[in-house]
Amino acid sequence: MTEEQRTLLEEFDKKFRALLVICENQKKKIAELTSQLHEEEARTRQTLEEIKSWNAKYSDLLTARAASALYGDVKSARKQLLNMVREIEKCIALLNG
Questions:
Q1: Residue 7 pLDDT grade (very low, low, confident, very high; cuts 50, 70, 90)
Q2: Closest Cα partner for 81 from 90, 68, 91?
Q3: Closest to 66 (Cα-Cα) out of 52, 80, 55
Q4: How far apart are CA 76 and CA 25, in angstroms?
Q5: Which residue, among 24, 48, 44, has the nearest Cα to 36 in the 3D structure?
């Protein structure tokens, strides 16, 4: 092997090792970003569940307000809603039984 070939081989070896280091760094970065992505996806799912919960509560509040407007005061509206819930539960029990 000539000196020129040895020099080229050493240069190739240095560049190849540098490329391997870059590859390892990129693998680490991909792993970190994948982990962050999973965390953000979980946070997004949790936020969507919270939004659904708040929408359900808002809908319940609107129903309660509409019922209170129909029945005059809050106590009688609550009583009417409880009666409706009991009736619905009875119907469900009959369907399941």
A1: very high
A2: 68
A3: 80
A4: 68
A5: 44
40-91 tens-digit pLDDT: 999 999 999 999 999 888 888 887 777 666 656 667 777 877 888 888 888 8
CB 26 within 8 A of CB 34: no
Which residues, 6 or more positions from 67, have their beta carbon under 8 angstroms from its beta carbon? 77, 80, 81
Q: Residues 69, 73, 74, 80: is their CA dihedral positive or negative?
A: negative
- pLDDT, residue 32, reads 97
Count of CB atoms within 10 A of residue 36's CB? 10
Q: How confident is the model at residue 8 (pLDDT cuts 50, 70, 90)?
A: very high
